[in-house]
Amino acid sequence: MYMTEQKKSLSALFAACWKDDALKARLMNAPRDVLAERGISIPDGVTVNVVENTDNALNLVIPRTPADAPSLSDAELSNAAAGCQDTSMDSYSCHPTC
After folding, report:
1. Are 35 and 48 in contact (CB under 8 A)?
2. Which of 19, 26, 33, 57 stands 20 to 30 A from 98 (CA)?
């Protein structure tokens, strides 16, 4: 539930940044302050990096490995990675149909 609310808050913040260059600049320069104003707390000791995708730069973020992630063999990993045929850069993650 928490992640859903956090994602909603972040989506609203991103939309606001598209309309407000000053807000976007503040988010990029002082992310903790802006996130706190939006009710999103970041634990002490956690670094927040804000980058923007542009026409000439695509930033990919590799999520951390979940604590309960199963350990896959190289063969299992190869089969899992080969399962998605969507190679468009329009999506940020594999489609559920893959």
Report:
1. yes
2. 57
- Distance, in Å, from the CA atom of 66 to the CA atom of 48, rounded to the nearest integer, reads 19
* Residue 23 resides in a domain: yes
Tell the burial category of 34 from Cβ atoms under 10 Å away from its Cβ (0-12, 13-18, 19+). buried
Which residue bears the tokens 């802006």? 34
**Residues 6 or more apart whose Cβ sits within 8 Å of residue 32:** 42, 48
| pLDDT > 80? residue 29 | yes
Q: How confident is the model at residue 65 (pLDDT cuts 50, 70, 90)?
A: confident
Would 6 be classed as within a structural domain?
A: yes
User: Domain count of the chain?
Assistant: 1
